[in-house]
Amino acid sequence: MSNLEFIADKYLDLDAQIKLLEKERAGVKEVILGLDVEYLAGRERAINVVESIRLSLKTKAVQEEMGKEWWDERCGATLSTSLRICKKEL
C-alpha cells in the first residue's frame, strides 16, 4: 500500500466512523429531548437543553424584491475546497 493510498483510506475510514457517531448522537439527542429536562449531568460534564430561534434569509425573495444589481453589490464570494467521496477509478 502506498502512502497516498494509506492517507486516502484513513480519511475514508474516519468519514465512515464520523457518520456512525453522528447517527448514534442523533439517537441519544432524541432520547434526551424526550426526557423533558433542561439540565442533565454526566460524570465530568453536563448538558444544558437550550431552545433558540434560527433566522434565515429568503435570498430568492430578496433578490426578486431588491433586484439583481442590488443583490450582487452586497454579496461576496469565497473560494472553498472540499473533499468529496466517490467511487474508485479503475
The Cα radius of gyration reads 22 Å
Structural category is mainly alpha
Low-confidence stretches: none
* Helical run tally: 3
Helix content: 40-55%
Q: Can you summarize the main beta sheet? A: 2 strands, antiparallel
> Which word captures the global form?
flat
Instruction: Note the gap between the termini.
Output: 16 Å
How many beta-strand segments? 2
**Sequence of secondary-structure elements:** HEEHH
How much beta, percentage-wise? Answer: 5-15%
Instruction: Give the strand order, joined by hyphens, for the main sheet.
Output: 1-2
What quaternary form is this?
single chain
Overall pLDDT score: 94
SSE layout and pairings?
Blueprint lengths: L2 H32 L4 E3 L4 E3 L10 H8 L1 H7 L16
Antiparallel strand pairs: 1-2
Helix pairs in contact: 2-3
State the main characteristics:
90 residues, mainly alpha, two-stranded antiparallel sheet, 52% helix, flat
Overview of the molecule:
Helices cover 52% and strands 7% of the residues. It has 90 residues and is mainly α. The mean pLDDT is 94. The chain is flat, with a radius of gyration of 22 Å. The longest helix is centred in the N-terminal third of the chain and has 32 residues, at 3-34. Helix 2 (59-66) packs across helix 3. It has a two-stranded antiparallel sheet with strand order 1-2. It has 3 helices and 2 strands; from the N terminus they run H-E-E-H-H.
